[in-house]
Amino acid sequence: MTGAGIGSARGRRPTSAPATAGEIFALIRQGAVATRTEIGRATGLSRTAVAARVDRLLKEGLVTEVQGGAATGGRPAARLAFHTAGGTVLAASVGVSRTSLAVCDLAGTVLAQDSVRMRVRSGPEAVLEAVGDRLARLVQETGSDPAQVRGIGLSIPGTVDSVAGCSIGVPVLPGWAEVKLPPLLTDRFPVPVRVDNDVNVMAIAEQHAHPGIDDLLVVKVSTGIGAAVVSGGTLQRGARGSAGEIGHTQIADGPGTPCHCGNVDCLEILASGSALIRDLTARGRTVDTVSGVVDLVRSGDAEAVRLVRTAGRRIGEVLASAVNLLNPAVITVGGDLVGAYEPLVAGIRESVFKRSVATATQTLRVEPGALAGRSGVTGCAILVLDQVLSPSAVDDVLAQHDLTPPD
């Protein structure tokens, strides 16, 4: 963490404005400091200034203090730690037909999880009203204090204007384009709301679950298909937020199937969960959900297994270009269709390793997402936590509560 007045935890003296309470909180949250003495060394603040700032963090519930090991002179040193139970954040990962919800602590750990089954075609107002109602019940069920909700992380399919908090004209979200989503939740929860693409938040969660991996490609195969790119340790959103939109890449040898985007033979119209439902229904199977497709595969239905493997090959064909371009260390596969993992990933591997250069695949791992159905809500939680627990946000909260110490 960098900030005005902050030196290293080894004792570098400050060179500008004194460290704020928010900056001290960041050091504690990172584990860079654990005592008042260490804070003084890292920031150059006096003992009185350190005590004033720490006291305000303790009162806000962001930090706890316990007696620790011996300090200089043999007296027990009070140790400071990030208080992960000092509030909650709410997470809502909106899908085409189902929205996953969670209440999380300040470390992003899921405390309670549920879902709302409602198609996004119902419109943002109806969907987010239902989401708000269920989140309020989840908060109550966990015994959490509604007044201690600190933020909401929200994800939606397709391209997102994360600054405005709205969808940018995604075909699968009719009626959502340019609708600012935070106000639809802040009437019930007057807290910051941060919005991003659904696969981006999955990538945020997967990045946290893969420490030391700086180059990661995350693929979601569900009702639709999307991807997200972590390169050099940073999530890549692109110039207009559409990085990773592989679902509308056209397949060269497709049968000429029209896509809802206006093109033909897009990957999503040929290889997504929706496409598999269509194709299996045409072959006499009774299936109307992606989980139904998964059930057919698990029951050994040969046609379902064949179609899922073919879908995997088509997805791998598109991913091969991304592998050559980005050279990821890991590809993680998530989404509802991951329940049919073996034929799906067998097809992906077949195309990726056939079509990519050998140097890019020599150590490449293709594996299921690490969070087993929680990557969406966990990523939403991390997304908003990075905002509401930033030094400036913490200082703003303390100022609102009239707790900010004088410099």
TrEMBL record:
GO terms for molecular function: kinase activity. SUPFAM superfamilies: Actin-like ATPase domain (SSF53067), Winged helix' DNA-binding domain (SSF46785). The keyword Transcription regulation does not apply. It holds the Pfam family HTH_24. Keywords: Kinase, Transferase. InterPro entries: ATPase_NBD, ROK, ROK_cs, Tscrpt_reg_HTH_AsnC-type_CS, WH-like_DNA-bd_sf, WH_DNA-bd_sf. PANTHER family: GLUCOKINASE, ROK (REPRESSOR, ORF, KINASE) FAMILY. Belongs to the ROK (NagC/XylR) family. This is Sugar kinase.
